Amino acid sequence: MSFAKYILRLIKFKISFYVYAPLSIVKGQYIDKNGLRILKDISDLLELEKIKYWLDGGTLLGVVRDNKLIDGDIDIDIGILIEDVELLYLCLLNNQYNICYFYEDSKSNKCIIRAEKYNVGVDFEIFKNNNKCYYRDSPRPPPRNIKNVNRNKLAVLRYEFDNDLIDNLLPINFFGVRLMIPKNYDRYLSVYYPNWRVREKLRTYAQKNFSQSVWEYKHHNSSAFYKEDEFLYFFNVSPSTIKPGVTDFIKMLKNIILFRGQKVCKLKECKSKH
């Protein structure tokens, strides 16, 4: 990628960051307030319905590394298997979850379901098995060389996990809530994060991982890669119930101006995420 393209992409990312900053503030506040409540709700519901699940992504990272939900995080990440996805969808509808959207692959299999309850967003990441390993697909903007006439058609970043990482789960007690996590969470987290024990600023992590094109994505190992022959399709279901107010915009502005000669940390970026 040329230097000029890199600068343009960086500028685009920074603009997007500040456009969505007030909403991120609100989501972070609700995670702080209702994060444990939603985890208990999910755990109770999925165990009652005998749906296999485990903590995934940033939620798992915070629980095992920091013994808390990560400062500045804006959603909960839960892994489930593809064979349970339709039952999960019905359970969410029948238990006052607002389903915002979902992604499907080219075979009409759901890959991600985004739901909300207690003003907390939950991403249910759908895992499949090809006999060699488990994997899940994450949506990314299409490469620039692909002329995409369908704006809902997205490229795939595929994460692969050894079978034993998901076959062997471990129950833990997280502030009185029983949750399931991969027994070998070290290897599991290493699929997502190069040095998961080292904290990294939220904004730095997002800029490094989401501001670049999927075909230029350079991960720390071969467990994450651009799947050229696959695409994900976005389906909107209902609008989000989480909305920023005027005070949230004011908070954002206060956090990005000079105050008494010192620059205040933007949002929660001074806190560590990864």
Describe the structure in your own words.
The protein has 274 residues and is α+β, with helices and mostly antiparallel strands. It has one domain (3-263). 36% of the residues lie in helices and 29% in strands. It has eight helices and twelve strands. The radius of gyration is 19 Å and the shape is globular. Mean pLDDT is 81; it is low at 258-274.
List the helices and strands and how they pair.
Blueprint: H1 3-19, H2 21-48, E1 53-55, H3 57-66, E2 75-81, H4 85-94, E3 98-104, E4 110-117, E5 120-129, E6 134-140, E7 153-161, H5 163-167, E8 169-174, E9 177-182, H6 185-192, H7 202-210, E10 224-236, H8 246-256, E11 258-259, E12 262-263
Parallel strand pairs: 2-5
Antiparallel strand pairs: 1-2, 3-4, 3-10, 4-5, 5-6, 6-7, 7-10, 8-9, 11-12
Helix pairs in contact: 2-8
Key phrases:
two-stranded antiparallel ribbon, alpha+beta, single chain, 8 helices, 6-stranded antiparallel β-barrel, about 270 residues, disordered C terminus, about 30% strand
Nutshell version of this structure?
By secondary structure, the protein is of the alpha+beta class.
